[in-house]
Amino acid sequence: MQRILITGANRGLGLELTRQYLERGDHVLAASRQPEAARELQALRRQYAERLTLLALDVTDEASIAAAAAGAAGAVDGLELLINNAGVYQPGGPGAAQRLGQLTAAGAAEIFAVNAVGPVLVTQALLPLLRAGRKGCIVSVSSGLGSLTWKAAGDPYHYSASKAALNMYMRSLAAEVGHQGVLSVIVDPGWMRTGMGGDHASQDPADSARGILRLADQLHAEENGGFVTWQNQPVPW
Ligand SMILES: NC(=O)c1ccc[n+]([C@@H]2O[C@H](COP(=O)([O-])OP(=O)(O)OC[C@H]3O[C@@H](n4cnc5c(N)ncnc54)[C@H](OP(=O)(O)O)[C@@H]3O)[C@@H](O)[C@H]2O)c1
């Protein structure tokens, strides 16, 4: 049984990952901003009481990160996997454009706080538990929109830049902690039918989740610090 902490676990890809790890018998520490309001997580808790721990976590709030790390340490004495999944595309709602002429410092700061800075701070706080796990792995959910090579349009400026920044944070972290036995990989989950991806997206988040489970299970030292698709194909930086 692996012990897995997932951020943004209350909906979308995070909920699907939570469900699949629980179904196969792992212990999930499901982190979300408002666990008491997370109906699907509450229902899963009734089904998997002893293998599902609900944690409150806002990845942009350092006090919340510290409290969640303490809560995790109270529930388990090690973690085998952390999935940095929480993310935002347009915090200000659909009207908050990320096009040239409409960009704001506040818009940039909000997206960077969730997508780039939050994951590295969460990872930093959970490293002691990852080092104490039987194997320590970190999967950070990025996006093909964070690839400099693939970038072919301006919009969405902030989201793309935040995922490129996430990639650099996690590449830096991989270079440092890979030597200490904690492996890290960056994953593009594809365009999924979630709140973020919308109804017209090409992919069922359940398929992306299955791919992420497979690649996390098979992660080798030589793949540390890589950027891959949910099907474990390399993504150009
Ligand atoms: N959907 C796609 O097509 C697509 C494509 C490429 C990459 N991705 C990436 O895949 C990941 C999952 O996306 P998704 O499609 O499942 O998105 P989603 O359905 O919009 O879910 C986003 C999750 O992130 C959480 N979150 C947002 N801000 C947070 C914060 N400050 N602290 C903690 N949690 C926060 C949300 O919690 P609340 O419910 O509290 O808001 C929610 O649980 C994201 O990193 C996203 O960038 C998605």
Plain-language structure description:
It is a single chain. The protein has about 240 residues and is α/β, with parallel strands linked by helices. The protein has one domain: NAD(P)-binding Rossmann-like Domain (Rossmann fold). The chain is built from 6 helices and 7 strands; from the N terminus they run βαβαβαβαβαβαβ. It has a 7-stranded parallel β-sheet, with helices on both faces. β2 (about 25-30), α2 and β3 (about 50-55) form a beta-alpha-beta unit. α1 crosses α6 (about 205-215) and α4 (about 105-130) runs parallel beside α5. The longest helix is centred in the middle third of the chain and has 28 residues, at about 105-130. The protein is globular. The site of NADP nicotinamide-adenine-dinucleotide phosphate (NAP) has 28 residues, from α1. NADP nicotinamide-adenine-dinucleotide phosphate (NAP) binds near residues 60 and 86.
CATH architecture: 3-Layer(aba) Sandwich
Please count the beta strands (DSSP E, at least 2 residues each).
7
Shape category = globular
> What do the pLDDT scores average to?
96
Which structural class is indicated by helix and strand composition?
Answer: alpha/beta
Record keyword descriptors for this entry.
15% strand; Rossmann fold; 6 helices; binds NADP nicotinamide-adenine-dinucleotide phosphate; 41% helix; 237 residues; 7 strands; 7-stranded parallel beta sheet; alpha/beta; globular
